[in-house]
Amino acid sequence: MLSILRSLVQEVNSARDLQEALDIIVSRVQKAMNTEVCSVYLLDPATNRYILMATEGLYRDAVGQVTLAYSEGLVGLVGSREEPINLEDAPAHPRYRYFPETGEERFRSFLGVPIIHHRRVLGVLVVQQRENIRTFDEGEEAFLVTVSAQLAGVIAHSEATGVISGLSLTGEEARDVSFNGVPGAPGVAIGQGVAVYPAADLDAVPEKAPEDIEQEVILFQSAVKAVREDIERVAKRLASQLRPEEQALFDVYLRMLGDDALPGEVANKIRDGVWAQGALKQVVQQYVRHFEMMEDHYLQERAVDIRDLGRRLLSHLQERGQQEVEYPERTVLVSEELTPAMLGEVPKGQLVGLVSVKGSSNSHVAILARAMGVPTVMGLVDIPVNQLDGKELIVDGFEGQIFASPSDDLRAFYQAICDEEDELIRGLEALRDKPCETIDHHRVSLLVNTGLMTDVVRSLSHGAEGIGLYRTEVPFMIKDRFPSEQEQREYYREQLEAFAPNPVTMRTLDIGGDKSLTYFPIQEENPFLGWRGIRVTLDHPEIFLVQVRAMLKASEGLNNLQIMLPMISNVSEVEESLHLIYRVYHEVREEGYDVHMPKVGVMVEVPAAVYQIRELAERVDFLSVGSNDLTQYLLAVDRNNPRVAQLYHSYHPAVLQALVRIAQDAHVVGKPVGICGELAGDPGGALLLMAMGYDSLSMNAASLPKVKSVIRSISREWAMQLLEDVLLLDSPHVIKSCVDLALRNAGFGRYLRPGKSSSKAFTERAAS
């Protein structure tokens, strides 16, 4: 059964469109289960009705014609109950619904299983059999459930592709097509989609026709020649180190590159009207499926060689055939997985929105987008990226929605929201030089998180009182080697000078987890629980010492440097780090630099640190909570995984209780405590943190004016009462709703989002 399932999934994955995928499913399942009927009913989101989309065994004329209401018939019962229904005598069931146009009166046995993807019922997969021939057993039911689970994602992806192309399941024109992800950065953007793809990733290659077939053939032949020469060069270099049987592996590669092998098939596909990269993708995937379905384990492993060869060829094709990406005036960048480098390719002033299939609201690209003020939606797992290229898109970063091919009414609705947001931001500019102080005179320091010099300019214009988190890994990530002491010193001096005499808190190198350096790769099974943060730099004191030396020298004459240690989980790490910092301090003084010993603090982002606050605080000058990672570790949720993104919630009762404890324990030993996670930049979150007693809040620059406006308009007593109320609640969603309601009642609803909930408000308005 496993080999049948694998073959089925591979075939469906390679289908050209949704209808072909569904036809493959019903045909292969009918054959595999040796049953008379297999059918797929899909739930049409536009009408909320099930439509018979494909069948093997019922009358074909019924496809697309037979529809059922959401809870109608046995199909509706399977969907509404979200579990399999297995009946020996279906017509005897009270929910049985007979459609004469299908010819199903001949079949009595019925087994239906729901097709569910990310908690959404997509449809129902049904098999049927004649009377007195057979009853479906538990093994067959389990097989059909397995098929359904495996195919749900493929069907969701194919369905999205069709809808974005402009057609609904019923074949009617689709407008205002919406997809839900998670909010990455607030705001609304209206612009043109530009799809970008990672290099040498066959799966990311879009389908398109060639502009010049012969040119594409020449391009591919050139790539084959280059790869063949690469392999021959490597084989020659390693000849003396390999046995004959190992050397023969290179001959296998070279034979695959022969004219009558893979290259010949790719050239034929190009001449059939597919561009070189797409033709290569199709042939490689076909070869891979062929090898993976073989029973011989040695031959199965050759699929790996084919994939490797495909990536090598694609890499050369992308180098030779690289075309300049044209970015329109209002670019919405779309990718499987956005990277900071992709953002940097868009000309200044033209990037208005971001859409990413992978990632969550706390992935680093989302954090960067918030700092840049670019509306972003992440975690759109069903979106076919290439279908959004060139489409007009609306990105709603408040609700985590995107709309493709919007109607004039929807576009006008969102344009009004954009205008309202611009007006709000202009109105907040007057607060820049005013203190962040409640109406009952409680003062809170508002700081910013930075990593680039562009962040500094924006931060100063928004009235930041210092830097609560300078991500020193940014200068490391934009290099192809470790930056020298002098290079680091220049980066750090820029930040320190820009904010002097206000404090600049520099976090020592924090790599690992979701932050990697190309020249210092860290390969781990579970990187978030692995070698990262202070663990890396203490194991490599040569990196840590150079960095601290550069920081201290950069602070000469300014003396506004603070050093912060990331990923601390025990006291010994602090003591070892302090020993190295003091050592560097004395060495720099001996070299003649007139520097002061900076304040040293620790980041509280590991649950173990929450229970050692007093011990840690006794050894350092300050504490700062990294609420993003702390939330991730407390809830056991990878913040970059869209499958569990909905479980990551900064308002979770456990997170709030931990934050209260940290502030209380730090103040017991008389040490200041701040927070530099994304919760601080949320107006409601900032109020709760102030009520808990946090001395400073550090956030992206774009959030600072709204947070200052809210804090300056309420009393700390009011905020403390709100905190007391929400700490009695046990649901993060209820807590968030309670905080939002309090803000709306206090007159700050416009800070949560300008206007009503977008899609709901528009739907209500359109209906009326």
Please give a handful of descriptors for the protein shown:
28 helices, 22 strands, globular, alpha/beta, GAF-like_dom_sf, phosphoenolpyruvate--protein phosphotransferase, 46% helix, GAF, disordered C terminus, 768 residues, eight-stranded parallel β-barrel
**Shape summary:** globular
**Strands in their spatial order, largest beta sheet:** 7-14-13-9-10-11-12-8
Give the radius of gyration: 30 Å
Secondary structure: number of strands:
22
Give the overall average pLDDT: 84
Share in β-strands: 15-25%
Uncertain spans, ≥5 residues at pLDDT below 50?
Answer: 755-768
Give the N-terminus to C-terminus distance in angstroms: 53 Å
DSSP helix fraction: 40-55%
* Count of DSSP H/I helices: 28
- Largest sheet, described in full? 8 strands, mixed
Structural classification: alpha/beta
Describe the 3D structure.
- With 768 residues, the protein is α/β, with parallel strands linked by helices.
- It is built from 28 helices and 22 strands.
- The strands form 3 sheets. An 8-stranded mixed sheet has the order 7-14-13-9-10-11-12-8. Strands 15-16-17-18-19-20-21-22 form an 8-stranded parallel β-barrel, surrounded by 6 helices.
- α1 runs antiparallel to α2, α1 (2-13) runs parallel beside α4 and α17 crosses α18.
